[in-house]
Amino acid sequence: MSRHITLLKPGLATSIQDQGRQGYYHLGIPPSGAMDQYSFRAANLLVGNPETAAVLECTLMGPELRFDSDAVMAVAGAEMVPIIDGEKHPTHTAIAVKAGSHVRFGVMTLGARAYIAISGGIAVPEVLGSRSFYNLGAIGGLDGKKLDTGDVLPLGEPSGSLHSHAELPENLRQPLAKQADIRVLPGLYDHRLSDEGRETFYADSWKVASEADRIGYRYKGGRPLAFQPRQPPFGAGSDPSNIVDAPYPIGSIQVPAGVEPIILHRDAVSGGGYAMIATVISADMDLIGQMQPNYSTRFVAVDMAEALAARAAYQQRLADLRAFFAA
């Protein structure tokens, strides 16, 4: 007998995501996948799934669901209280949900993305090794389209390995805050900034703009950045931040016209003509996905040794999370 849930309301930008698809960015297909990889994995482990099973990623406002099968559900990441048949339940906790239950969610009070994991995982077909939805390419997810009212989402078979640790302790949850220091490595085109422009970029406080999604996060509120004077090379535009087209790494920061920095995230295009003045270190990419509009950021320059140490610390946090559920 097949298991599934029905989407009664899709929420603001709910999509099916997993660990993402690697190895195709050179062909223009970005990794996609959960914006907060740590919380996505925590949600799965809570319900006894493999940590990379597909989940629902909710942005700012959750969906409404009808469970058509008995299942276990957990919400991790942003603070978004699940409400099952009118009764509130805690986040970061495995919850048994009966077939026929109506599930909705409260206002997202802290953070920007919550992950709804359901035992068995969302069992849509894989595309290029991932079930993640990529909107610009219309691939992955449910038939390569945005989720909508009435969609029926198939569930896989539960592993049967539901853990006795039904609640994730505070020290293993993703820390959430309305202000975050984002660590960056100076980018390939750092030299295009003037000394004054570089000082301004790192000294000012920037706020997340309303144009913040899976493709990129735009920031505002800092002073305009000055670039080095130059004669545009052949093939580059006249904007002082323009370069001859080059590939973009995920996490790279460009500042069109020197006004509003944009961080490219997991659904970003793979190349273009804007100078990349810095790149967010991998350990801090999850934090960006948890920032709502008007949250504030300071960019902090680090060197390669510090970036590698931060990555090792992130991997240790994941190891601690897995060890908790393996105990």
TrEMBL record:
A matching Pfam family: CT_A_B
UniProt xrefs under InterPro entries: CT_A_B, Cyclophilin-like_dom_sf, PxpC
Origin superkingdom: Bacteria
Domain Carboxyltransferase: 26-318
Signal peptide: none
Keywords in alphabetical order: ATP-binding, Hydrolase, Nucleotide-binding
Name of the protein in question: Biotin-dependent carboxyltransferase
Protein species of origin: Paralysiella testudinis
